[in-house]
Write a structure and sequence with these properties.
About 30% of the residues lie in helices and about 35% in strands. The strands form 2 sheets. It has a 3-stranded antiparallel beta sheet. The protein has a two-stranded antiparallel ribbon with strand order 1-2. The chain contains 2 helices and 5 strands; from the N terminus they run E-E-H-E-H-E-E. It is globular and about 35 Å long. It has one domain. The protein has helices spanning about 20-30, 40-55; strands spanning about 1-5, 15-20, 30-35, 60-65, 75-80. The chain is of the alpha+beta class. InterPro entries: HP0268 (IPR040748). Pfam families: HP0268. This is HP0268 domain-containing protein.
Length: about 80
């Protein structure tokens, strides 16, 4: 499963990360916050949350608005081992 991380600038292309890399980083640090781009489908992100929770991770997922435009949002996912 490939997901797009949030862009660092408006014109930049989002970088991708896979589920195994996410799990590796969380296990190494104990907890981690990831920010995902709005180009990810909500369904894919919910699938990621379900897979992580089934493997014993605690996951907090929310949509973060950073502007007044309807498309000014990113997804914040806080994962704890």
């Amino acid at each position: 499963m490939e997901l797009k991380l949030a862009r660092e600038t408006l014109k930049a292309k989002p970088k991708t990360i896979d589920l195994e890399k996410i799990k590796t980083e969380v296990e190494k640090e104990g907890s981690k916050i990831f920010y995902f781009d709005r180009e990810n489908s909500h369904k894919d992100l919910m699938d990621m949350v379900d897979k992580l929770e089934s493997e014993g991770f605690s996951v907090y997922f929310r949509e973060v608005k950073y502007g007044l435009d309807e498309n000014d949002y990113i997804y914040e996912v806080h994962i704890i081992k």
